[in-house]
Structures are given as C-alpha cells and as structure tokens.
Fold:
Amino acid sequence: MKSSINTRGLEVWFATGSQNLYGEETLKQVAKHSTMLAKSLNDAEAIPVKVVFKPVLKSTEEIYNLVIDANSNKNCIGIITWMHTFSPAKMWINGLKIVQKPLLHLHTQFNRDIPWGEIDMDFMNLNQSAHGDREFGFMMSRMRMERKVVVGHWQDKNVIAQIAGWTRSALGWNDWQGAKFVRFGDNMRYVAVTDGDKVEAELKFGYSVNTYGIGDLAGVINGVKETAVTKLCDEYAELYKLMPSLKKGNAQHQSLRDAAKMELGMRKFLEEGNYKGFTDTFEDLHGLPQLPGIATQRLMADGYGFGGEGDWKTSALVRAMKVMGTGLPGGNSFMEDYTYHFEPGNEMVLGSHMLEICPSIANTKPSCEIHPLGIGGKADPVRLVFNVGAGPALNASIMDMGNRFRLLVNTVDAVKATHDLPKLPVARVLWKPHPNMQTGCAAWIHAGGAHHTGYSQNLTAENMEDFAGMAGIEFVCINKDTNIYNLKNELRWNDVFYKINGK
Structure:
C-alpha cells in the first residue's frame, strides 16, 4: 500500500535582506554569499525539502512582493531570512504584516572567523549581520511575530540540525492547511477531552473535521470485491505472524477476511474523500462486523492520522507528527497511558490501546491475532500485537482549554520489557516519564493533559515547540528540568497572557 504522505516538490525560500546604500559591488557580494548559503542548505541531507535562493531584498516593494509570492505559492512551506548587511526594518513592515508562511530568522554571517590580519572597513560594511539581524529582530518583536531564531555559523552541524527540525515542523503545518479529517460516528459519550470546538480548530489550524454515519462507511465496505479481500489476506500472511486460527481453512479465517474487507473499504473512503485522518468509536459500529483494528493500524502506518473514540484533535496531531517525521528512523502512533507500574525506583507507564497502535513503532515482526474486545458488543476484532523498542521518545497532546488550544509534550525514555505479556493481546510500550514518574504524571495532570496522545520515536520537543509557534498556540513542555512549583506558575502566567491577548 502506498503512503498517504507526499512531500515531493515542497520548498523553503531563502531571503536575504540588504539595501542600496552600499553600492553595486557590495550587493553583488551579498548575492554571491547568499547563493552559496542557500545551496549549502539545499545540499544538506538533514533538510527534507528544497531550499530555494531568492534575489536579495533591498526595498519595501521587493520585500512585499516576495511575501505575496510566498503566500500564494503552494510549494513554499516557509521562509528563511538573513540580514547579510543592514536592512532597515521599516522596509519590512508591510511584508511582515501579511506573511502567512512560517518564518525562520537565521542569525549567521558568511565568514566563520574574523580575518584578523586583513579586516578593514570594506569587510565591516559587507559583513554586518551581527547588528543587521538585530534591527530585523526588533521589528518582529515589536510586531509580536512568532518566528524561529537560529544562531551560529551556517556550516555548523547544530545550526543545520535546527533548520532541518524547523523545516519538518513546517511540513506538518503545511499539511494541515486545507486538510480534511473524517469522524466515523460521534465521540465516546460523556467524554470531555476528546471533544472540542471544531469551528475554532478550522480557524486556528486550517483543517476541517466532519462526521459521516457508520452506514456511509459500511456501504463502501460492503462493495469491496472478494478477490481484493483474498489478495489482502495473502499479504497479511506474508507480512505478519498469523495466528493459526486465522489461516485459510481454519475456524476464524472469515474474521480475517472481514478485517481485510474493512481495511479496503476504509482506505477507499479516505482516498476518494481526500481525507488525511479519521476517528471511530466502539460505541458506534452499526453495520460493521467488528471494531477496526488491523485496518486502523495499517492505515496509520501509511501516514493517516487516527484518534480513538472520536478524538479528532489527536487524529490531526498524529497525522502532523507522521508528516514531520517522514524519512526519519522510527515512527509515530496514536497512544494512550493505560496502566502504571509503581515498583519503587522503577516506576513506568504501560502505553497501549484497545487495538490501534501503529506498527511503525514496532521493534519486532507483528503477530496478527484475534481476541475478544470485551466492549462494543461486536465480533472479536483482528489486530497486530507487538512490543515497542527502547529509546528516547515523547508524548504530545492537544487540548481545547476553552479560550485557546494547548499543545502539551512530555519527553520520556522508552524501556525494554523485562517480562513477557502472554495474556495481553495488544501492542504495547513501556516508558519512564521525565523528570520522573511522580513529577511527570502530576505535571501532566496539572496541565490538563489528555489521556490520548501522539507518541513519537523520531521527533523532539523542539520540533513540537516550533509547530506550536507556527500554529500560534500555547506550548507546555514537561522534561528533565520540570518541577511542579515552576510548572504551576507557568500555567498561571499563560492564563494571564492569553486572557490579555484574547487568543
């Protein structure tokens, strides 16, 4: 099956600021240096999109026209700015007022070192980034603009890594613009955190969320041809360790066929509607033989977002995280903090869900199994069962706080399971929250964190912070430096900020 994520042709624009004061020869040098910077970034393997040099900006009109072009260009996902010389910031006001793409301010200079024996005033006039970028930075601060600031020499690996991370966040943000997410049925009854203001979300995030009845989906599923079902079942048998009862000729093979038919129908529904993610709920399955398990897992592995029990915010977040992590080792998945291990000195969270953990994070060949679900009142669902490997990871969640959205992140260390779980028929992962179990969990609760999250093996808290900045929403991070006293104060200050600013 093909991935639902396509980043081909996307690019960030490299825009250099200067002015006509310095003369033609200086401007030629500025253009030459800027071209070299843009080419170097474009050649960097870590940056997942093309970096495109744009002619040096020397006037209000040139700046304004560049921003107009960037806003209207569907392939441009962001702008990198650099002031090689001194670019008077009043020239930037009209352009910055209308910028709609994420912006990164690269505070660098062409030369790494001062040429001690040769430095003269010609050199000083050409290489003014140290104060030229401060002029530019003032204007964005005066305008209260969200942007990423990266400082250091343009060939430094840490600078390139920060630019690459911001670019990945821009990929996720770009993917949300005009995206559509479908809810198959409503959300789980009486649950608060999975619900929210879908109108405000579309205004803020650029994606829409709409509901279709289960009968609409069932109609598409029922139209799937049996030959296609047989072919997909053969694929299951090749890719996974098939439970004996699910194999051809055995007692529960029809359940495998039902699951395959659901996957094919759901995939068709999503492709024909151009949806980037979906939700379902075990409380709303009329017309479906079982809650989609393996279907949801495989669709997530192909890049679709998913949220259980109608959780559309998490579905959209998982999709964005998958786009941001495209091409990186590891994966991203829908997740839930399910149960705890409170052994003194070895406290851990067991993360899982009823069925729907993405195999992109599996560390072993998944086993395809069938077991009772216990809720939902439908036939036993087929699912992929596996463990998740150890290593650094994070959990992220978006909540509707009433007057704003909050993106909450907790960095964690996933750990290898030291015990077999022969009676737990779901995919699962163990992790230790930062800074520790007691503080991490208490901080999550103080911040109103949801029980559903997006779990990532390949994104960082900085990626998520950049993403929140692009969205213009609150960002709260629980990490190794967190303590409850400071976190509670941060939440109070944020409340005041958003009330004052009306965001």
